[in-house]
Structures are given as structure tokens and as C-alpha cells.
Amino acid sequence: xxxxxxxxxxNIFFVIGGQGISxxxxxxxxxxxxxxxxxxxxxxxxxxxxxxxxxxxxMMFLQKNLYTNMLLQPISLAINIYGLxxxxxxxxxxxxxxxxLQITFxxxxxxxxxxxxxxxxVLVWGFILTRLHLISxxxxxxxxxxxxxxxxxxxxxAQVLAAQKKWECWVFWIALNIGNVILYISAGxxxxxxxxxxxxxxxxxxxxxxxxxxxxxxxxx
Length: 221
Description:
Layout: H1 2-7, E1 12-16, E2 19-22, H2 23-40, H3 45-63, H4 67-88, H5 108-135, H6 145-163, H7 169-186, H8 191-220
Antiparallel strand pairs: 1-2
Helix pairs in contact: 2-3, 2-8, 3-4, 4-6, 5-6, 6-7, 7-8
């Protein structure tokens, strides 16, 4: 009976602060935290876990009728596939001692380029969100289109940088999760601020661990 209930992912798993958390949502959080933790340790297995996480998020957003968030998941999947390839199939001059992609830093020109990319994503995606309900009635009018676009922009930019094993990806992840903690608390949520705080803690671990790994790489070179 327990297993039957568990695999019925739409059912409520537990209630916290008067808010029901479904099995699907709990599984997504579990896989998400595991993926980020493995990424913070610079382990390529994070991408395999991330594939499952993306699929669970797609189902969860579909269930909750959050179609704009759902539409981001195929993009995230494509970036994750690219990341797995880059991490495990680097060129000879990019390999670390584990024969995987080395951790590197962006130069100032690249940092400016990614900031421009972030702003572009926010403006374009925010504009699309303001028009989605005009395209189809399946999409409800966006309440905060440019806020949603900012979250999407930070996430996608961080994923692209992580796929290239750029240390700066953690700066974007930290900015994203600080914003999430504030937004969730202001919205009166209980479970999601706790989850975002765990994500933030793993982001801090990542920024510290990747910096140490980078210094080790320099010593070896």
C-alpha cells in the first residue's frame, strides 16, 4: 500500500505550514538537491541526476498548470546534455587529473558578455510571457512576467556557465536562490524557503570547493 501511494505522485506526501507537498514535488526536490550537491563537488554524475530532476519538474509544472516554467525544462535538458558532454569529453588541454573538464574562470570580456546575455533573456522572455495568454487560452496571464523572466534568466545563464565548468556559475546560482528565499518567505510559503536555503548552502559549498579545485589545478600545471 505504501509503495502504491508513493508511485501515485500526485497524492499529498506531507503537510507543512498548512501547505500540502505532493510525492512528485518531494521527489523533484530530492533529486534537485542531490544534483546540486554533486555539482558542488564537481562530479559529472550530477548531470545524470539532473536529467531525472528536469523530467520531474516538467511533470510537476504540468500538474500545477505552470506552463511557462514547464516550457523551460526542454531548454534545461538540452543544456544539461551539452554539460555532460563537455564535462566528460574535454579536449586534451582542458583535462584535469580525473580526465574531466577543468574548472576555469571567465575573463572580464566574457563576464560582460554573460551579463548582456542575462539582460537579453530577461527582456525577451519577459516580453513573451506578457503575450502568451494572447496566443492561447491554455496560458493564464502572467502576474509578474519580468520577475519570472529574471528567475529564468539567472537559471539558464548559470546552467550554461556550469556546463562549461566556469566558476562564476555559482555567483548566478547564489543570486537566484537568495532571491528565491526572499520571494518564498514574502509569499507566505513554508516548505520552499527551506528548500531554497538548502540549495543556497550547496551553492556556497560549490563556490568554495571549485575555488580549491582550481588552485590545485594551477599547482599541477
